[in-house]
Specification:
This protein is mainly alpha-helical and 184 residues long. It has 2 domains: 103 residues, no CATH class; 62 residues, no CATH class. The chain is elongated and about 75 Å long. The two termini are 34 Å apart.
């Protein structure tokens, strides 16, 4: 290495350096997700949205890499330089494994998807899903209050007692995870 003057044979191995560059790119994106998941006081719906967005990005990268396109892999592109004969198929396999791990790790989220959607925006939910939402969706006063509210939890805390089942559902969703570190 530089200061110690020890030879590092891996630095001369182009495949090893490509793998390292790919790992750097993926790790950077995982770190960005990690920071998003650690935002204090966020609701489980925001965590779910961030995880869904990340898995969608992984799928996009997998498709791009399988076509020989590497826009999300800046370190890898830099390492490849002018190397034209590179398929990247080994990295699509690694992305598949990462997707599988995310699917396993966040499987509980999929079970609550409809509730999360209803909680995040109750006025966009299909009325057939919950008959009780009809009253809320048709209440102009509540709609106005929802649009003006910056924090969705404040809106649900102010729901009138005439919506006991909705209040119960939203309290349940808000308390699903007691920690912002639910992914650890």
């Amino acid at each position: 290495m530089g200061e110690i003057k020890m030879p590092v044979p891996q630095f001369e191995d182009h495949k090893w350096m490509r793998d390292l560059a790919f790992l750097v790119d993926v790790t950077q994106e995982l770190n960005i997700l990690n920071l998003k998941l650690k935002v204090p006081g966020q609701l489980v719906t925001a965590v779910y949205d961030n995880v869904r967005a990340f898995t969608a990005k992984l799928k996009l990268w997998k498709n791009q890499i399988s076509q020989g396109n590497f826009p999300a892999c800046k370190s890898l592109v830099e390492e490849l330089g002018s190397e034209i004969q590179f398929s990247g198929s080994e990295y699509t396999t690694k992305l598949d494994l990462l997707l599988q791990k995310f699917d396993q790790r966040f499987a509980d989220f999929r079970k609550h998807k409809e509730s999360f959607n209803m909680f995040a925006n109750p006025f966009s939910v299909d009325v057939d899903l919950q008959m009780v939402l009809i009253d809320m969706q048709c209440n102009t006063s509540l709609k106005t209050k929802f649009r003006r509210t910056k924090d969705v939890t404040d809106f649900f805390r102010q729901l009138p007692p005439s919506f006991p089942n909705l209040c119960k559902t939203f309290r349940k969703i808000m308390s699903l995870f007691g920690s912002t570190y639910i992914y650890e």
